[in-house]
Amino acid sequence: MYSEKTIKHFKEPKNAGEMQNPDGVGEEGNFKCGDAMKIFIKVENNIITKITFLTYGCIAAIASTDMLCEIAKGKTLEEAENISAKEIADELGKLPQLKFHCSIMGQKALKRAIEDYRNKK
Ligand code: FES
Q1: pLDDT of 58-90, one tens digit each?
Q2: DSSP 3-state assignment of 15?
Q3: What is the number of domains present in the chain?
Q4: Is residue 95, in this structure, part of any structural domain at all?
Q5: N or C: which end of the chain has fewer CB within 10 A?
Q6: Is 58 a catalytic residue?
Q7: Is 90 exceeded by the pLDDT of residue 43?
Q8: Backbone phi, then psi, for 36, in 5-degree steps?
Q9: CA nearest to 86, candidates 7, 71, 4, 75
Q10: In this predicted structure, what is the pLDDT of residue 26?
Q11: Is 33 a catalytic residue?
């Protein structure tokens, strides 16, 4: 059902955890399952320098958000906003279709974190 890479990102996420003094925070809930996601970002010169997440989500949510963080690090805010679900799934190997709604929770939270950062500026 899941690729080895997905299992690895689920078991050993590099970007899980709360961030102290983030520049932006975004939250997203998943109406299908009731789970939740929170993303924290640090931004310097329009570049995401640090990104972490907290979630009550499942394997797909944790692995895909950890991969999202890996992809988003070092990107401009505009590039990070445009990271697609396909890009994340391609990097992970594959994700079951029925878990698609879990895999986009991180992206939505990231967009809100970027919005939060822009509103604070
Ligand atoms: S089942 Fe809730 S995030 Fe996947």
Answers
A1: 999 999 999 999 999 999 999 999 999 889 999
A2: coil
A3: 1
A4: yes
A5: C
A6: no
A7: yes
A8: -140, 155
A9: 71
A10: 98
A11: yes
**CATH number of the domain that residue 53 is part of:** 3.90.1010.10
Which phi and psi angles does 93 have, rounded to 5°?
110, -70
Catalytic residue among 63, 102, 110, 113: 102
User: 12: burial class by Cβ within 10 Å (0-12, 13-18, 19+)?
Assistant: exposed
Q: Which domain holds residue 47?
A: 4-116
Cβ of residue 60 lying under 6 Å from some atom of ligand 1: yes
In one-letter notation, the amino acid at residue 2 is Y
Give the pairing type, strands 47-55 and 24-29.
unpaired
- 86 assigned to some structural domain: yes
Q: Is 102 in the pocket of ligand 1 (CB under 6 A)?
A: yes
Residue 57 lies in a domain: yes
pTM, entire model = 0.95
Length of the chain counted residue by residue: 121
Query: CA 118, 100, 85, 52 torsion: positive or negative?
Result: positive
| CA–CA gap between residue 105 and residue 109 (Å, rounded) | 6
Query: How is residue 74 written in tokens?
Result: 């070092």
